[in-house]
Amino acid sequence: MTQYLQRAEKIMARINELASISEDALGITRTFGTRQFMKGSKRVSSWMEQAELETRVDNIGNVRGRLVSNRPRAKTFVIASHIDTVINAGKFDGPMGVLMGLDLMEQLKQTKAALPFNIELIAFSDEEGVRFHTTYLGSKVAAGSFDESLLQRKDAAGVSLREAIQLINGNIKKLQEDAIAKEEWLGYFEIHIEQGPVLYELDIPVAVVTDIAGQNRVEIIFKGIAGHAGTIPMNKRADALCCAAEFILETEKLAHEHKDKIVATVGKLNIPNSASNVIPGEVVCTLDVRSASEEQLSFSCQSLRNICNEITEKRKMTFDWNLIQSTKPVACNKELSKTLAEAITASGYEVVNLVSGAGHDAVAISEVAPVSMLFVKCFKGISHNPLENVEIKDIAAAIKVSDNFIQHLINKHKN
């Protein structure tokens, strides 16, 4: 196990180095296209070059490194995760998977492994979608499913996605050229922290991801009437914030009633022109609903919309319901998952199967390729938070499993 611990320490050092590159001096923030994001991207690119991978940055800012098979017309197996973050993030969500993938590539290069397929490592540029609300931006380009209408999206400063891509020297007209054609994909593998407490509570280092929950993100605008807080009687008010508050509690209630099937979150509230002595006339909030069942996801979202309608009618108010993002549940490939489970057993660990409630780049890639995912234990399941943490021994365990997984694939395809 010593060699795996040594490799884990190198990976951890790189994770810490990348975490030191941030838009926020007191935390970790790297959003797509910013100066600090580009600095982090260059660091990852330099590590790929040091590993003697065929390295390039594509037009959406994905950093890509390849090991090329000598076989003619060889397909490509992709190992990937993302290097952008949420605001005030932890340091493992995304980068750990990229840097563990880089370690795997370095080992294959050093051992001069005969590859029956190409292996490409991709550090996706935008999975979190923080700046432009463009989740899976990097992986959609690699999958050939980039939606050009997104180019008109603007960030909080009024900069469009089109302008941001140009500022990082991306060519809008060549985005489609960066896709890996569907017939060229062999498969996809992503290593990621669990972002949940199951492995931590079981004290097991890794798990096979069987499914990824679908999710709907909605922007809801509650419209009441602003007024003076001291002069309008309580029974004459159309308070948008009270309306939003009632909806939030009803959302929590419905999610509790179906707690084994869905999760629902109102994560953001905005009160335009707010003041302590003004009755809120408008409230904008977000709704995030997730489920591994497409039917349950649809049912829950429609139920919440009906609840929203009932509350606003009762309060003599109106609302806008704007669907921002919708992704279907994704089933990981059974054959790849079986091979991953065999690699876990061969490494001496118990096989645990988990459903991911969080979305991942594997969702976008699943449209063109069979996908697989390995979860790694993290401290109390905490994620999207500076307290996010993974122990060296669990990184080492994941390296051992991933080595075995890749070797299983090589052996399977070498004849």
Q: How many separate structural domains? A: 2
Please bin the fraction of helical residues.
25-40%
CATH homologous superfamily designation of the largest domain: Zn peptidases
What is the general shape? globular
Number of helices: 11
Largest sheet: 9 strands, mixed
| CATH structural fold name of the largest domain | Aminopeptidase
Rg, Å, rounded: 23 Å
Q: Are there runs of 5+ residues with pLDDT below 50, and where? A: none
Mean pLDDT: 96
Distance between the termini: 30 Å
Beta fraction? 15-25%
Q: Spell out the helices and strands N to C.
A: HHEEEHEHHEHEEEHEEEEHEEHEHEH
> What's the level 1 CATH class of the largest domain?
Alpha Beta
Number of strand segments: 16
CATH architecture of the largest domain: 3-Layer(aba) Sandwich
Give the oligomeric state.
single chain
Specify the structural class.
Answer: alpha+beta
